[in-house]
Amino acid sequence: MLTGLSNILGGNGLMARVVRSSSFIIMGYGGSQALRLASNLILTRLLFPEAFGLMALISVVTVGLMLFSDVGISPSIAQSKRGDDPAFLNTAWSIQIVRGALLWGIATLLAGPIAAFYDQPELAQYLPIAALSLVVSGFNPTRIETAQRHLLMGRLTVLDLLSQVIGVVVMIVLAMMWQSVLALVVGGVVGALAKLLLTHFFLPGIRNRFQFERKAVGELVTFGKWIFLSTLAWFFASQGDKAILGKFLTLEVLGIYNIGYFLASFPLLLGQAVVSKIMIPVYREKADATRIQRLRYGLTLGISALLIVMALLGPWLVGVLYDARYLNSGAIVVVLAVSVLPQVIGITYDQAALAAGDSRRFFIYNAIRATLQVSLLLLGAIFAGLIGAIAGLGLAMVLAHFVLIWLARAHEVWDGRHDLFLAVVGGIGGGAALWLHWDKITAMIAATSA
């Protein structure tokens, strides 16, 4: 058995690279979340719940701008036959830089209107500073995408973690000095700068230079136009909850929700990080169906199990880690973890479309999912507050899966038996968590509705 394991981990075949890269991604993401948790625990004691609510709104805008302007450079490099061509990579890098500068300008122009919309004057001051990270990230070398394309994640994982450590240390030091949300804003910019410098000097690959090759631009735009539309939809799917709830909740309750979201979303975001980096190469290199099936079961069962554990232990975990101001985050962990369980079932399917260059169907799926999430979350918030919004989110996940089946069938990767099995596992585990913590959920509903 040990010999077999050594052969799998030590070879240079597709599955060997998948296993090694998955391990590095999991370790990297786990380390990243551990750093976030450690900094979170320190910062919640140095700052106040409203600070995390305000930071959630800042993140909605900066992440939204990134997604609203995403032309699919990373998946383009991952799936393109020219993904190792210097002219193609330099063109992609040049587009990134122009995009980053434009995003900072847009963020600066929108800062005042957004501050007025949410009735939070501080946003007008903080948003232009936070958006500097978009400018910095635009200069990130394409060596990052090259490492991901070839499933060589070891050094990249270490550099990502090191840049995050630098950003976290700066946040904590500034929070001690300033006692202000500005510490979180500046720390984010420093972390982005650290990643740029570390990947520039310590990742192997070509040294990027400004270049706009017409053929490369054409390929990037052709593939990227649907990715651009897909990421518009992804913004509403991933950030719509905070964008909508920011209008319905006080900053304090939004901050408490954000803590709960951070804990509950960890397994799903870990799974998405692994899937997005390994499944395109797996589908692109046409691994055999049995291996893909095993990989799918391993990923979806692992993520579902983590979500169920988080739902079962969420209130206890919050009670151990945070002070009394954040106790209602525990019930939020429970209901959020259960609501996203349906999304895990088909988490490996949509990457088959990207691997085949089918960004149009990929967009259609993401657009329908985003429409369902935003509309049902908004209706839930209007009629039943925070708990209604989360319930609407869960229902949207269930309905969106039927659209995902259409996408998976088009690329011959749908596995109905797998989906049924995962639905039963999620239903039993999620139902048990809701039953066990129903008293805490009702207390949270009362507190957040006051």
Task: Note the main attributes of this structure.
disordered N terminus, mainly alpha, 2 domains, 450 residues
Structure description:
By secondary structure, the protein is an all-alpha fold. The protein is 84% helix and 0% strand. The chain has helices at 2-10, 14-46, 49-68, 73-79, 86-118, 122-130, 132-138, 143-149, 154-178, 182-202, 214-248, 251-264, 266-284, 289-321, 329-339, 341-345, 350-355, 359-410, 416-436, 438-449. Helix 11 crosses helix 18 (359-410), helix 12 crosses helix 15 and helix 15 (329-339) runs antiparallel to helix 19 (416-436).
What are the secondary-structure elements, in order, as H or E? HHHHHHHHHHHHHHHHHHHH
Helix content: over 70%
Instruction: Please state the CA-atom Rg, rounded to the nearest Å.
Output: 21 Å
Please report the total strand number as a whole number.
0
Instruction: State the helix count.
Output: 20
Mean pLDDT: 85
Number of domains: 2
N/C terminus separation = 59 Å
Uncertain runs are 1-9
Offer a quick outline of the entry:
The chain has 20 helices and no strands.
Topology of this protein?
Layout lengths: L1 H9 L3 H33 L2 H20 L4 H7 L6 H33 L3 H9 L1 H7 L4 H7 L4 H25 L3 H21 L11 H35 L2 H14 L1 H19 L4 H33 L7 H11 L1 H5 L4 H6 L3 H52 L5 H21 L1 H12 L1
Helix pairs in contact: 1-2, 2-9, 2-13, 3-5, 3-6, 3-11, 3-12, 4-8, 5-6, 5-7, 5-11, 6-10, 7-10, 9-10, 11-18, 12-15, 13-14, 14-15, 14-19, 15-18, 15-19, 15-20
